[in-house]
Amino acid sequence: MNSKGQILVVLAVLLGYMLISFASLTPSFNIFIFMLTPPKQALTSMYHSLEINAIAYASRIHTPDKVGFNTPKPQSLSLHAKSYISQLKSKFESIGVDQALWRIINVTEEYLFTFTNLGAVLNLNSTVSALALWSISKPYVPVDVNTSYKVELTLQDLNIEMNPYRYGFIYNSTVKYLHIVDNVTTKYPEVNFTAYVLSSNVWSRAEILKTTYRGNGVYSLAIDIGVPLNTRNPYVIVQVEDSYGVVLWFKCKA
Amino acid sequence: MKLIFSRRGQGRLVEGALACLILLISFGVAMYTINVKAQTLRRGFDLEDLAYSVLSILDEDGVLAKAVYFGRMDELRDSLNTLIPSSIGYRFEVRSLNGFLEQVLEGNDFKTGDAGSATYILSCYTDPDNPRIVVLALSR
Prior knowledge:
The complex is a heterodimer of chains A (254) and B (140).
Chain A: H1 3-36, H2 40-61, H3 64-67, H4 74-95, H5 99-105, E1 111-116, E2 121-122, E3 127-136, E4 145-162, E5 169-181, E6 185-187, E7 191-199, E8 202-215, E9 218-226, E10 235-242, E11 247-253
Parallel strand pairs in A: 2-11
Antiparallel strand pairs in A: 1-3, 3-4, 4-5, 5-6, 5-9, 7-8, 7-10, 8-9, 10-11
Helix pairs in contact in A: 2-4
Chain B: H1 2-5, H2 7-60, H3 63-70, H4 73-83, E1 89-96, E2 101-107, E3 115-122, E4 132-139
Antiparallel strand pairs in B: 1-2, 1-4, 3-4
């Protein structure tokens, strides 16, 4: 074997080693990236969770009991929702969790919270809604994430009738309540209803005689409003609290 | 043709054959290495993927928050037993941000050996100052 042949053999050995090294390194490289990057599904779920919690946090600050049934300003609700995220971020910063975890919560780009008609007087087919809309891309998160979370409460029907059992009135209303995730998935969480009626300029709790679930998030309520101040046009508040902690409410007139 | 039958040509042929042999052996070793490692890692990936999927589903359904922040661990145990095959052991850990272990739930004879895990951040509207780290480890 001459010197050229020897060089060829050495080159072949080197090439072989390079192949082995590359083949061995590739899966390790993948796992290194993977460990730092939760799958998109998990990342999106975490953001959905943050969104619904921020909505719940803001909506609970303005529950009717605390604000005397005044209509809250949408901007202040959005600020409360944003402050929820800020509190979380500052908590993470103060403790100094490791980089991979920090990247998950590191929401540095603009995110939007929009609250519509919470506490307002609604007409038929009007909707109270809370919307969280985030679009977070690299380098803030390892993969691009676009998420939206919407909570909707719609007044579908209402009428007032005489109470057949005692003097007073029954307020029948039909509402639809649902969560819409990423404009695709619809959820129907468990809900609790509370009703209030305005009589003698004081809001008082009204008894809900019957709640009927009609499917697809539609509920029919029979509310005993007694004898309101204005029997022709009583004001009623319908409040919904769902299993995610969100409280949405509106006022309506029969 | 002259080159093939000459000494120099035969030398080249031998060198070429040797080079091919070494390349083949290298490929063989490389393929063997890839196969062995890929199988080992694949099992890890599968478990990790499953762990992340389970945590995502539980969080989207609100089960995680109910268990961690409202103490409804029985619901969580039922959900884990439903979502994770009985042949796969699990260990569910709740930790504070500084890593302090607060709650543990184990099932299906969890073993620490061949395990894959997923780390998840959880928060709740009732306690924004106290987010938690949830770890779900799965083992075969």
